[in-house]
Design a protein that fits this description.
- The longest helix is centred in the N-terminal third of the chain and has 21 residues, at 89-109.
- This protein is 42% helix and 16% strand.
- It has helices at 26-29, 36-52, 89-109, 118-127, 156-167, 171-177, 199-214, 231-238, 250-262, 300-310, 326-333, 338-342, 352-361, 373-389, 391-396, 401-419; strands at residues 13-15, 18-20, 56-59, 83-86, 113-115, 221-225, 242-247, 269-273, 283-289, 311-323, 364-371, 424-432.
- The chain starts with 12 loop residues before the first strand and ends in an 8-residue tail after the last strand.
- It is built from 16 helices and twelve strands.
- The strands form three sheets. It has a seven-stranded mixed beta sheet with strand order 8-7-6-9-10-12-11, with helices on both faces. It has a three-stranded mixed beta sheet with strand order 3-4-5. A two-stranded antiparallel sheet has the order 1-2.
- The protein has two domains: 13-143, no CATH class; 151-432, Rossmann fold, CATH 3.40.50.150.
- By secondary structure, it is an alpha/beta fold.
- Helix 10 links the parallel strand 9 (283-289) and strand 10 (311-323).
Length: 440
């Protein structure tokens, strides 16, 4: 599914109180087909699960009356358990009966449920994810999940399409909720919760830590895989490095080139629209920030082999990557999820075990590994709160309420994953396995 800006004055379908463009959101505008049996099973499983969890459920149409408290260090400013409010219980259970967690997300996009503490609710669900379905019924999991579509594979052509479907939405959209550095990855804060005005400094702290891991200094030949909007390349060039940074996003490249020129560093930085598999040469340092999640498990061997091939003797790789537990990664790799359908097509978060295995197989050794998941939860909180505050401006860019609910759920879902410690984020240093000091 493509989530580009919709055409002007689209035809809409009234779904509850939310107008839905059926051409842009076909699976949100209509209820899926689901047998009465599947719907009844979903209703019963959820009722039993919710009764055991620290949350409250409420049935009723109270749209617009559900407060959205700011999320604090513990995950919520609310006192007491979060409430799941079902505006349309029949549609909610039918969607989950038909499509499992994809249906859960589409039901939120359709405004069929809400919460007074969205992150708190999702954190409860993420913490107890293995307890939601009774053990005997887990064997029937395949009946509720779909395989990932073949067109989402990260071939050379597919990877470009997948990246553009997320990162080429609109530079103006991202500018509405990112900090002025336009960094779209976890910051490293001096204190938690973040002090007011500390966001950009925290992003620079993250970037500088990665550049230090890779040994970037005056004269370093640096390759960055995944340009973003150019902030890391700017800081590396400011150290005197000669930078090649590659991206598959035309929108990002255009803005990165402008920002690099405004910093007076165009003579030190080249920004190429290029797949990592097509890069040639060797570099003293390679840095890649939260890009491996877009590679796909099928291509992890190719990715790490490319890192090894592109690394000059004595050089180092610095990676920042989100991670998840290995068994959960294996389940996710086989499943078409709400995130893969609407947010990151073709993506998969690796496990620490997978990173060790794949890097070792490619002749690389991990010599540094540190995690700071709580900092990503804080990063996501700041993005989410800013995104919600900028709702009118986002709408003025052409992004309708269905998109905004989708994006809010994506940010809240990700934040909850880190607060539940279901997800982590790590900075790694890798060198050639036969290099001096390569033992971890």
């Amino acid at each position: 599914m493509t989530v580009s800006v919709p055409p002007a004055a689209p035809s809409v379908t009234a779904l509850g109180h939310l107008p839905v463009d059926p051409e842009r959101w076909p699976d949100v505008a209509r209820l899926p087909r689901a047998s009465a049996l599947r719907t009844a099973i979903a209703r019963r499983i959820l009722a039993r699960a919710f009764a055991r969890l620290p949350l409250r459920t409420h049935h009723g149409d109270v749209r617009g009356l559900v407060p959205r408290p700011a999320t604090g260090e513990a995950g919520s400013a609310q006192v007491g358990p979060p409430t799941l409010t079902l505006h349309d219980p029949a549609a909610f259970h039918r969607r989950i009966g038909a499509d499992g967690l994809i249906g859960f997300g589409e039901s939120y996009m359709a405004d069929e449920w809400d919460s007074d503490d969205l992150v708190g609710l999702l954190t409860v669900l993420a913490t107890h994810v293995d307890d939601l379905v009774p053990a005997p019924l887990r064997r029937l999991r395949s009946a509720w999940v779909r395989r990932r579509p073949a067109h989402d594979r990260n071939t050379l052509e597919g990877a470009r399409d997948n990246i553009q479907r997320h990162y080429d939405l609109s530079n103006d959209l991202f500018a509405r909720f990112l900090d002025p550095s336009m960094s779209y990855s976890s910051a490293v804060f001096d204190t938690l919760p973040a002090a007011p005005g500390a966001f950009t400094a925290a992003q620079h702290r993250k970037i500088d830590a990665l550049l230090d891991l890779a040994g970037v200094r005056e004269g370093t030949r640096l390759l960055e895989i995944g340009t973003g909007w150019g902030e890391l390349a700017i800081r590396a060039a400011s150290r005197g490095a000669e930078v090649l940074t590659v991206t598959l996003s035309e929108e990002q490249r255009a803005l990165a080139l402008r920002r690099i020129a405004e910093a007076g560093l165009s003579h030190r930085v080249r920004v190429e629209l290029l797949d990592y598999r097509e890069v040639e040469g060797q570099y003293d340092a390679v840095v890649s920030v939260e890009m491996i999640e877009a590679v796909g498990a099928e291509y992890w061997p190719t990715y790490f082999a490319a890192l090894h091939r592109l690394l000059a003797p004595g050089g180092a790789v610095a990676l920042q990557t989100i991670t998840m537990p290995h068994e959960r990664m294996l389940h996710t790799a086989r499943t078409h999820t709400w995130i893969s359908k609407y947010v990151f097509p073709g993506g998969l978060i690796p496990s620490p075990d997978a990173l060790v295995r794949e890097s070792s197989a490619a002749g690389l050794s991990i010599t540094h590994d540190t995690g700071y998941g709580e900092h990503y939860a804080e990063t996501l909180r700041l993005w989410r709160e800013t995104f919600v505050q900028e709702s009118a401006a986002v709408g003025a860019l052409g992004f309708d309420r269905v998109f905004q609910r989708m994006w809010e759920l994506y940010l809240a879902y990700s934040e909850a994953g880190f607060r539940a410690r279901y997800l982590d984020v790590r900075q790694l240093r890798l060198v050639a396995a036969d290099a001096p000091g390569a033992s971890r």
